[in-house]
Amino acid sequence: MAMRRAAQQAARFALHDASAARGLHASSAAGKKIVGVFYKGGEYADRNPNFVGCAEHALGIRGWLESQGHQYIVTDDKDGPNCELEKHIADAHVLITTPFHPAYVTAARIARAKNLELLLTAGIGSDHVDLPAAAAAGLTVAEVTGSNTVSVAEDQLMRILVLLRNFLPGHRQAGSGDWDVAAVAHRAYDLEGKTVGTVGAGRIGRLLLQRLKPFNCALLYHDRLQIDPAMEAELGAEFEPDLDAMLPKCDVVVLNMPLTEKTRGMFDKERIARMKKGVIIVNNARGAIMDAQAVADACATGHIAGYGGDVWHPQPAPKDHPWRYMPNNAMTPHISGTTIDGQLRYAAGVKDMLERYFKGQDFPAQNYIVKEGKLAGQYQ
């Protein structure tokens, strides 16, 4: 671990020396090479004309980019030394990636990408980028803030209900020809009257609290910043400054914070043990916030009554990942933020930022993750 940190630090110092050569935005709009990495649509690519988030449809911006003389390379092949991304990153000016099929932009990749100026995330969450290395190299990192917050908040609410009501075993019975009410009812509960806590109360966390309020739950939240009192009263949520004081009170815990060095592995065996026995956990934030084996073990013992989410570490998750097989899980591939509505919003946001980039204009302030060598507050 120490050797890896030393290597990363050395790479960042090397990048820092070269950072002056890379401007905040394009010095010339002509002839830029843009590389996009998206998940493959395959047989589903043409079933919906608005399915713009797949590699085949490439955010719907190919014609626009090429008509202006730019080169647009799109691939889903992102891993390993011989992948398509490696072939093109060396002379790319812009790299567009997504959290749903993340291309891990390491310090080593940044060092090889001598022309790179801009890293855009089509969606929300840029932790697949080595942000300190990007800052040291003088790169701009931005994402389409707010593009899929509704999508994720709705998905979280769905997973809370699916797990509390023990829906999945009943659904499997319907498909298999079985009929055993007791097998479902013995661990099915109402949401009303439960205490739900969100760890993180940014855009998604607040939308979730708004949607939970009509269910007559006790709502708690922990965040580095307290919500404005008027908004707090409107949400009906109580601020908990001490995370470990909040967790034992909660029947349901939802994670809504970014992955940083401070939050990586935050929910380890010891913290999970301090949570209420029978807790429901929903994690649509990032898989690496959790100790994967500790979660699987706690599900096996029943300390965690149900765990659901769509984020894993790494992604795509290997076939032997323990979360695939643990009891009472409601796991899916990373899908919550890539609804068709979400895709249309983040595709439009990427196009808007590219237009601004070609003109040398600033992006909306909230979209910046790294600007002029500085990381956004949530990643510090």
TrEMBL record:
Its EC number is 1.17.1.9. GO terms for biological process: formate catabolic process. It comes from the Eukaryota. The record marks R286, H334 as: Important for catalytic activity. It catalyses: formate + NAD(+) = CO2 + NADH. SUPFAM superfamilies: Formate/glycerate dehydrogenase catalytic domain-like, NAD(P)-binding Rossmann-fold domains. Keywords: Mitochondrion, NAD, Oxidoreductase. GO terms for cellular component: chloroplast; mitochondrion. NAD(+) binds at residues 149, 203-204, 223, 258-262, 284, 310, 334-337. It holds the Pfam family 2-Hacid_dh_C. Residues 67-361 form the D-isomer specific 2-hydroxyacid dehydrogenase catalytic domain. Its main location: mitochondrion. It is found in: Mitochondrion. Belongs to the D-isomer specific 2-hydroxyacid dehydrogenase family. FDH subfamily. This is Formate dehydrogenase, mitochondrial. The lineage of its organism: Eukaryota, Viridiplantae, Streptophyta, Embryophyta, Tracheophyta.
